[in-house]
Automatic annotation (TrEMBL):
Transmembrane segments: none annotated. SUPFAM superfamilies: P-loop containing nucleoside triphosphate hydrolases. This is ABC transporter ATP-binding protein. Keywords: ATP-binding, Nucleotide-binding. Signal peptide: none annotated. GO terms for molecular function: ATP binding; ATP hydrolysis activity. The keyword ATP-binding applies. It comes from the Bacteria.
Length: 248
């Protein structure tokens, strides 16, 4: 893992009136790191991700993503990241090839780049025989792999994954994480939210949010030591209960 910081936040805050959905969070993510961003529904992680991806302006604090300021350079941030939502993010009524052409065009790829990278992606996934089929005819597990591949088609510096393995079987989840490892090995930073605690173990470092604040931050090994727990499920339960509550 590279020591270069590709995401940095300092007291990043988002308020809606008097309610602070994200309250002065401070953390960093390194280049090529797999960074887990965890928290229960309503903890503020989705709001934080929207600020980091340029979809929502912060109220106060500081943050940069891929070297660009979240307050003033949101469009530049969008051009340097990939994003995959927790719901299937491609179009079911288009074929794999049509989705590649559509999203590749949005990402600004040339026709030559689309042909080269699209062909390589289809061959790597072993989907040459179904590349002309509508995606609604493809199993969910394969859809998620395709969505991840399309999200990284333009070779972004960072890819944001929002609950990417929800609803898929354990074998497909493991295969999906192998794709994440491969992306990280190629210096793509992976910022991932997940509610599967076994997946938290796969991350280099983790941030856990409670009520808009960071209540746990570090590697899985460090967090288990901090909270005197044997596994990440126990860590999450203790953090949710407010035990050993440590705000950053």
């Amino acid at each position: 893992m590279n020591s270069e910081k590709i995401i940095e936040t300092t007291k990043l805050t988002k308020a809606f009136g008097s309610f602070k959905a994200v309250n002065e969070i401070t953390f960093d993510v390194k280049k090529g790191e797999i960074f887990g961003f965890l928290g229960a529904n309503g903890a503020g992680k989705s709001t934080a991700m929207k600020m980091l991806t340029g979809l929502l302006s912060p109220t106060s604090g500081e943050a940069t993503v891929a070297g660009f300021d979240v307050f003033t350079q949101q469009e530049k941030i969008k051009k340097n990241i990939g994003y995959m939502s927790q719901k299937f993010s491609l179009y079911d009524d288009l074929s794999l090839l049509e989705n590649i052409k559509f999203f590749g065009g949005i990402y600004g790829l040339s026709k030559e780049q689309l042909n080269e990278r699209g062909t390589a992606m289809i061959e790597r996934l072993g989907l040459s025989d179904v590349s002309h089929k509508l995606l609604k005819e493809v199993p969910l597990g394969w859809k998620q792999k395709i969505a991840f591949s399309v999200a990284t088609l333009h070779q972004p510096k960072i890819v944001f994954l929002d609950e990417p393995t929800g609803g898929v079987d354990p074998i497909t989840r493991r295969q999906f994480w192998e794709m994440i490892y491969e992306a990280a090995d190629n210096d793509t930073t992976v910022f991932v939210t997940t509610h599967y605690m076994d997946e938290a173990e796969y991350c280099n470092r983790i941030s856990m949010m409670v009520d808009g604040r960071i209540a746990g931050y570090g590697s899985p090994k460090e967090l288990k030591a901090d909270f005197k727990s044997e596994n990440m499920d126990e860590v999450f339960v203790k953090i949710a209960r407010g035990e050993n509550y440590k705000l950053q």
